[in-house]
Amino acid sequence: MAELKALQAYSSALVGEDCPAGTFRYEVDSGELEWSEQIYQIHGYRRGEVVPTLGLVVSHTHPDDRKRCREIFEDVCRGGGFFANYHRLFDARRRERRVLAAGEGVVDREGKILYVEGFVLDLTRTIQLETDRSARDAIAGAIGTRGLIEQAKGILMGILHIGSDAAFERLSAYSQHHNIKLAHAASAIVRLANNTQESATLRSLVHALDSRFSARHDADRVLHP
Q: How far is CA 41 from its chain centroid?
C-alpha cells in the first residue's frame, strides 16, 4: 500500500495545542485499510493493538450515525468522488468523540474505483472550548445587562424620587414604546448620565418618560376601572 499523505491541521480554539487529525487509505479491491498513528490515537489505540478494518470503524461509530456514514462511504467506494461526515464515535474507553471524516474515492481512466483516501479530524476538544466560551460570553452579557438596568433604575429613582419597582415599570414602558430592548433603553439613560454635558437632556428624557408612563397608566385605569 502507498505511503499515507501528511496532514496539517489547525483549530483556532486550541491556541497552542495540536488539533488531533490523521489520514487513512482504503484499497477497495483488497479491503485493506491503513491508518496513520493519529487515527489509532483518536480511536483510543496504539499501533499494533488492533488491525484497522471497516468493521472496526463501524463498531466505533455512534449507533445513530452508523447507517448514514456507511451508506455514504459505500457510495464513494462504488463511484468515487468526495465525501465528508461529521459524526460521533466511541473510542476504546467508550469516550464519545466528535469527528469530521472527509476524503475522496479515486478512480482510474476507465472509471474503476481504486482506493479511498482521506482524513479524520477530532473536533471534540474544539467543540468543548467553543461551547464553554459561548457560555461564558452569555453569562457575562447577562451580568452586564443586569448591571445596566440597575444603573438606569437608580438614575430614574434619583431624578423622579420613586421606588425600584416604579423605576423598572417606567423603563419597561419606555422600551416597549420605542420597540427597543430593555438593555438598550437602560444603556441610553446610563450613557446620558455619564456625560455631564447631557444632564439637561437626561432630565428632559426622564420626565418625558415619566409623563408618558403616567398618561398610559391613567388611560389603562379609564379603560379597565
A: 25
Q: For the sheet containing 113-122, what is the strand order? A: 33-35, 21-27, 113-122, 96-107, 81-90
Q: Is the Cα dihedral 185, 186, 187, 190 positive or negative?
A: positive
- The C-alpha atoms of residue 117 and residue 106 are separated, in whole angstroms, by 8
Residues 158 and 153: their CA atoms lie apart, in Å, by 9
12-70 pLDDT tens trace: 878 777 788 999 999 999 999 999 999 999 999 999 999 999 999 999 999 999 999 99
SS (H, E, C) 50-108: CCCCHHHHHHHECHHHHHHHHHHHHHHHHHCEEEEEEEEEECCCCCEEEEEEEEEEEEC
Interior angle at CA 26, CA 21 and CA 32, nearest 5 = 120
Cell of 197: 454635558
* Cα–Cα nearest to 77, from 36, 46, 118, 131: 118
Quick check: 63 and 118 in contact, CB under 8 A? no
Q: Which three cell numbers stand for residue 156?
A: 430614574
User: Per the confidence metrics, is the pTM higher than 0.85?
Assistant: no
Distance CA 53, CA 32 (A): 7
> Could you give the CA distance from residue 221 to residue 223 in angstroms, rounded to a whole number?
6
Q: 189, 206 in Cβ contact below 8 A?
A: yes
The amino acid present at 118, given as its one-letter code, is G
Q: Is 145 exposed, middle or buried (0-12, 13-18, 19+ CB in 10 A)?
A: middle
Distance CA 173, CA 180 (A): 10
* Nearest Cα to Cα of residue 101 among 117, 77, 125, 79: 117
